Amino acid sequence: MNTPEDFGVLINLPVGVCAVDTSLNIRFWNRRMELWTGLIMDDVSGRLITELFPHLEADLFLDRLNDSIYRHIPQYFSSSLGLSIIPEDKTYGRPMEQRTSIVPYRRNDGSDEYALLIIEDISDLKKEVEAYRKMKDRAIMALNEQIKAEKEVFEANGEANLYLEVMSHDLNNYNNVVLGYASLLESSKEPNLQKYTKGIILAAERSFQIIQSVSAVRKLKAASSPPVSVPLDNAVLEGIKRYSHVDISYTMTGAKVKAGSLLVEVFANLFGNSLRTGGMDTKIAVVVEDASDRYLIHIDDNGPGLSAEEKDSIVHCSAEKEANENKLRSTGLQLYIVNKLLDRYGSRLTIGESSLKGVTEGSRFSFALKKG
User: Which residues form the Histidine kinase domain (predicted)?
Assistant: First the structure.
């Protein structure tokens, strides 16, 4: 019995292909089938497939094979059925997971009808799928561990924030008590007592500002909203309010700038930095200049000024941002917060000589904010 010419293109396919006619006689057997079974085309041509492989007489197979030949319905045998349509020869060297499709085929002239058994060896594919599943399981396990760890960190942060809030509240209560007693002493006409009282009040106000600064750091870590339009006057006046016993001058501008709710911390911390270096008799002035699409803002003081090394440290830290954050922290908490906030607002801090009248020393901290 001759092999139909139609099947010639199937001879070297990387899958097993067997064709049977309506009588279930084998009419084609490609080289992959020869490799898997150890039987060549001449051995099987014209023989009943059920004679060659008796296990195929089972209804499960014959019904599907007949449906394919006579009703032209394609059939599919999943590897999960555990059924090897064509048992591989032991000399092939390894067991084989098979996935089989039965496809009806009719010659162009309609003279003959066949069923094509297309058999795939999916052993390697199954191993890859199994390896993928294991990898996926490991990834899911690692992800769950990460989620668990992040949850623990989140809960720990929440607890830390609660402690911080309670501690800040208690410290502020003590500061208010100190300020209350100091205010009573302030009415004294004794010069030395007035001086000491002012020192007590300033220390309490600075303590309050440190608490506010720590709270600002927490807010910085928690939020990253883009700059919005805010009134400049409100931020400056709120910063001045935190140092009610310090001589801070400012002329209202009505300006609006692109910043955020934490802009007040920029002014409060720059005021605090001036007091840190200049002491309780420090005078401070806030100057605003209109410069095209932005406002230039200067904070002048009459303190002792900063050394060249201190200026260089602050300027370089402001420019290098995250890459030099440890060095930035070395400038102090207040300037650290200022630089972080200005970076968020698209600005940076510069340092010059104070412009206060009659001042030979002192510092000028400057930055620019876009108009809002």
Answer: 166-372
User: 158 with 96, same domain?
Assistant: no
Query: Do 367 and 261 belong to one domain?
Result: yes
Q: Is the pLDDT of residue 237 over 90?
A: yes
Q: Are residues 189 and 214 in the same domain?
A: yes
Task: Give bridge partners of residue 229 from the DSSP assignment.
Answer: 258
Residues 276 and 296 in one domain: yes
- What is the distance between the alpha carbons of residues 232 and 372, in angstroms, rounded to a whole number? 10
On whether the pTM is more than 0.70, the answer is no
From edge to edge, which strands make up the β-sheet containing 294-301?
Answer: 247-250, 283-291, 294-301, 363-370, 350-353
What integer pLDDT is reported at residue 76 of this predicted model? 84
Residue where a domain stops, chosen among 93, 121, 149: 121
CATH of the domain at 113: 3.30.450.20
Q: Which of 198, 224, 250 is the last residue of a domain?
A: 224
Q: What are the CA-CA distances from residue 163 to residues 39, 149, 158 (Å)?
A: 81, 21, 9
- The number of folded domains in the chain is 3
List pLDDT tens digits, range 207-230: 766 777 667 666 666 666 788 999
- Chain centroid to Cα 253, Å, comes to 41
Q: Give CA–CA dist 362/301, Å, rounded.
A: 5
What range defines the domain where residue 330 resides? 226-372
Amino acid 283: pLDDT: 92
State whether 105 and 33 are in the same domain.
Answer: yes
pLDDT tens column, 113-166: 889 999 988 877 667 777 778 888 888 888 888 888 877 776 766 666 665 665
